[in-house]
Design brief:
By secondary structure, the protein is of the alpha/beta class. The protein has two domains: 15-176 and 219-343, Glycosidases (TIM Barrel), CATH 3.20.20.80; 386-536, Chondroitinase Ac, Chain A, domain 3. It has helices at 28-40, 52-55, 65-76, 99-103, 127-148, 174-181, 205-209, 213-236, 270-276, 292-302, 319-330, 354-376, 434-439, 482-487, and strands at 15-19, 45-51, 80-90, 110-112, 118-122, 154-161, 242-247, 282-287, 313-314, 336-340, 382-386, 393-397, 401-407, 449-456, 459-465, 467-473, 498-504, 510-516, 525-527, 532-536. It has an eight-stranded parallel beta sheet with strand order 9-8-7-6-3-2-1-10. It has a six-stranded antiparallel beta sheet with strand order 11-14-15-20-17-18, with helices on one face. The protein is globular.
Length: 545
Amino acid sequence: MKTIFKDKSGKPIYVLGLQSHNSSNGCWELIDKSISAVKQYHGNTLEIPVYWHQFEPEEGNFDYSVLDELIRRTRANGLYLVILWFGFSKNAGSTYLPDWAKEDTTRFWYASGPDKCLVPIISPHCDEIYDADAKAFAALMKRIREVDESDRTVIAVQVENEIGLYFIDRDYSSRAQADFEKGVPAQLDGVTLEGSDADGKSGSWYGQFGRHAHEAFTAWHLAVGVEKIAAAGKAEYADMPLFMNTMQGEIRQELAGQSYSSGAPVGRVLDIYRAAAPTIELYAPDIYRMHKTAFIRACETYSRPDNIFFIPETGTRGDAFALNLIHAAVEYKAIGICGFGAESTLGPDGLLTDESKKVAATMRILKDMSPVLLKHAGTDKMFCASQEEFQDLCYFKREQYHITLIYVDTGIPDWGVKGTPAPSGPFGRSLPISTQAAKDPASFIQRGRAVIFEASPYEYYMAGVGVSTRFLKRTEPNDSCPWLTNASRAATEVAALTIEEGHFTEDGEWICDFKRRGDELNPGVLLYPGTVLRVKLNQNIDCAQ
C-alpha cells in the first residue's frame, strides 16, 4: 500500500492518532492532555495546528518558540507529529490571520456576496494574501527542517484547514467578476463535473461547468493560491509530505456555499485541484457522517487511483465510528485515521470516557494489524466485518473454509454449552486476558467488529472485539457424503494445528504469546481487544474417511 507517512529511516508508518482542539497549541496543559489521550487511544500520532498569528506576530518577524516546544514535547513522548497550518483559511474563515494582516483591508481584501456584504474570509482572488501566507509557510517549513529533519518527528504538514467560501458560492466583488469574465484557463481543458448539465461550450465557466460554474471558478482560484503556498514550503523542505483536508461535499443537497464551503476540494471538484495544485500529495476528507452509507460514500469518493486515502478528522466516540473506521482501513486502504478533539475524549479523572473507549478499541485493533494493513489492505486477502443493527452473525465463504463470525455483544460467552455452568468459571479465567476482563467486562461486550487476513487458505490472522469465529471445512466436489463432513467436529477449528494469541513486530514478524487448547476452544475462536489470533488449520484432515 502506498503511503506518504514514513519515519526517519524511510519505513512506512500506519498513522493512528488524535487531533487537538483548534486553539490548544501553546497551552501546554492542553497539549499534555492531548498526548495522554493519544497514548490511551493506542495511537502513534498527534495532529495539532500552528497559527499564522502566533508564528508571525509582526510581518517578517517569526516566533519559533511554540513550534520548537511542540516538536520537543511530542518527540519526548515517543509520538509522531502532523502540523496543521492555520494560515489565511480555517473553516471558510480568516480568523487565524495576524492582526497586521487583518487591519490592512486594502492589501488583504475580503470576499463579498451577491448583496455586496462582506464575508469573513479573504477573497480567493486576492493574490497578496497568497504571497504573504507563502512567506510565512516557507519559514515554518524551513524551521521544521532545521530542528527536526534528523529525527523526523514531524511526518506531514496540512496546508490550511477546510478551505472554501461559506454562505456564498463565489466572490461577487468587481475584481472577482473580472476574473470570471476571463473564462476557463487552458489547464482545465477536458475537465467536466458530474451533474453540471453544461452545454459543452468551451471557454466560459457556464459553458464548461454549467450549474457548478461558480463552485468550479472558486475552486480553481483557491487551488492556484494553495499551490503558491505549498510550493514555497516545498522549496524549503522538499521531503516533507503536504496534504489538504476538506469538509465533505457529499451532504444534504450538495449545494456549494450552502451544504458545504464552495471551492473546497470536495469530490466534485477534486480534478480541478489536481490540475491546479500538483504539489499537494493528497486530499483528505474530514468524515463526521455517522450512518454507514454516508461514511462509506466518503471513503469511495476519496479512495481513488490518483488520491491516497487518509482521514485527518473523524469522530472519537460511540458505536458508529468504532464500526465504520474498520471498513475505511481494510476495504478502502486508509493510510491513517485521526479523531478530532483529543482533550474531549478524557473524563475528569484523565481517563477515556466510556464512549471514547469504543473507538479506542477499534484503534487498538488497527494498531495490532497495522503491519498487515500496510501490505495487504484493499486486496482480496484482507476482509472485515462490523455488526449492523439486528445482526447476529456474519458469513464469509473462502477457498477452503466457511468462516462464520458470531456476534457476542448481548453477553459474555461462557466456556460451556449455553444454559449450563461454564466448566472453567467466569469469562476469561483461563486466558491471559483474565485480569482485564474482571476489571472491565463491559469493554468486551461491544458491537462486534473484526479484521481478518488470509495468509493462505489454511492460515488466518484475526483481531477484533465482540466476535466468536467458527471455521468449517468446505466439502470437496467429489465428496460422496458431504453431510458427514459438515457435521464433523474434525472439520472445524477444533482440529486446527494451532490457535495462537500473539502480536506482530513493527517489521511484521509474528510473535506467539499464548496457545489455546482444550476448553479454551469451546467458544470458538473468540476475539478480544489487545491481541491478534493466528489460526492455522490442518489441510491434511479428510473428514470423509
